[in-house]
Every structure is written in C-alpha cells, then in structure tokens.
Design goal:
40% helix, 334 residues, Rossmann fold, six-stranded parallel beta sheet, 12 strands, 11 helices, alpha/beta, six-stranded mixed beta sheet
Amino acid sequence: MVSKSGTEPRRVTINDVARSAGVSRQTVSRALNDKDEIDGDTKQRVLDAAHALGYRPSRFARGLVRQDTMTIGLVIPDLLNPFFTEVAASALEAARSRGWHVVVYDTADRAEEERGTLQVISSQVDAVIGYFSCPDSELEAFTRGMPVVLIGRESGSSRFTSIRIEGQDGVHAAIAHLAAKGHTRIGMLDHHTRAEPSIRHAWFTSATRAHGLDAGMVVGADQTADGGGKALRELLGAHPDVTAVFTFNDIIAIGALREARRLGKNVPRDLAVIGFDGLQLGALLEPPLTSVALDTRQLGALAVEQVARLLSEPRTQVADDLIVRAELRMSGSA
C-alpha cells in the first residue's frame, strides 16, 4: 500500500484488513488467531483480504516474541563461497549470544531463488538479514512489518537499514602498491553475472586512472576458482603484457593464482595478484594471497546488532547505516 505522498510504501494495518473484509478489528483478530467465535465464511473472507493486502501481523506489537523465540532469517548468495560462510558464522555466533535462532537461506546468487526465498520468509522468521539484488519495492512487499538489515547494499527505503562496504581507499592502496612496484599494465577480473559493472570495478577504474594507467583491461569471471582461472586466461589472451591483476573477490583470485602456475608464471615475479575480501583461506595459499580485506566477523555481528536496535527503537531513531571498511592486507602474492 502506498502513502498519500506516493513515495514510500506504508505498512498495511489490521484496520486496512477490517475495512477490506467489511468486519471489525476484533473479527480480524479472531480470524487471524484461528478463534472459534466466528463462522468459517467470515474467517475465510478475512484471510483472503489479509493475503490480498499483504498484511503480516506484527509478532512484536502483539508481544508474542520472547528473547528465546526470536528467529532471524539470514539470506546469502552462495554458501560454497567461504566469504559468505565466514559472515554467516559470525552472525550465528552473535545471534546465539542473544539467545536467538537463525535460519540460513542460500539463493545460489539467482534472482528467481531470491524471489522464492522472499515468498516464504515472512511466515518463518521475525527479522531478515542478508544480501539482496531485487528492488526495494519487492523487499518491501515481502517483508512488511519485519526489521530488515541489508549487507553490502544501500537502500532508498526508510524501512531498511544497511551494513555498507566501503572499499575505495583499500583498492586505491592496492593499485598504488602495484604502481610503486613498477606495474603499468594492471587488469581486473570482475563479477561476471551482474547486469552492470560492480562497485569494485568503479573503485578499480578510479584508482588506475589516478595513476595514469589504462583502466580498460577488465574481464568478467564467475565467482568460483575455476571462473577465476578461465577469466585470467581470457585476460592474458587479450592483453599478454598484463603483469598484475586485481580481482572482484578472493575466490576468483585463488583461481587466478592456480592458473598462473599452470601457465608457468611465477607469482608475484611474473604476475602479481590482489584479491578482495580477506578470507582466512588466503593465508593458506602459496604464496599467501594479498587482499583488500574486510572483517567478516564484524560484518555478521553488526548485522545482528542492527536487528536488535530496530526491535528496540523506531527506524527513524536508529543511527545512520553502518560502514565496514576494507583495508589492504599485504602478503606474498603482490
């Protein structure tokens, strides 16, 4: 339902359902709580009206949520990606410390899976944390009445709060390091499945141009190690003089490192590689991976903390969206 200003959807209330069904508030309450005081036809009319309006009774307003029954829905794109596993682990730890339960949903980084998750999530959890690519309007429609914390994304809706990733300074530091080492031909392996170039691509472009370097040597990669290897072959096929690579994430960088060895290149002497994320796995590689690193434990913990604040304060009183900054973590691959 849209407010009179036409700019911000408002939450559907029990009064809206009562008006639509032509009954009283008390009758709506009885129908939604499956009481026997009303006849079956009336109950069905109320349920149909509630469904048509997208009404979701607030468990918080009804005082039904106790500390030990709170359930968080954590939506992530890919459990096989260690970055999201690390974030999920930290969120689970933070939720457990509050006595909360967590249900994890894996959308496989596909729009249709994400939409399907949203269609069922409102009946299963009390608040939502996660990574979403769908428009704010869809999130609003499926999560009415619930606290929502978005990770790695800004939102124009006052209903949501965000944990934003700020990596521009870290990426600039990475490119500055490569330039200082004498690299003038620096490529990037970007996210392959996004409709538009990633924000990390924008940071890369800004950083390379700041050093007077060519920012156009960019190839898309699937978010897997195999995807990183394939993208590196494509990049070097098109630009054989590339001597350094920055990647969208560490998983792609791991694939690039492996492929570089297959091609007989020494890392970092023949090809320097810098990832983004700072996975613990990167320290186990040979050479260890240099990365623009995030604190994944902080990401998950802050998201749970934001849910707690949304439950205790109106959204308008919650502080501005939180920011987690990525910093260059030097190691052996660059």
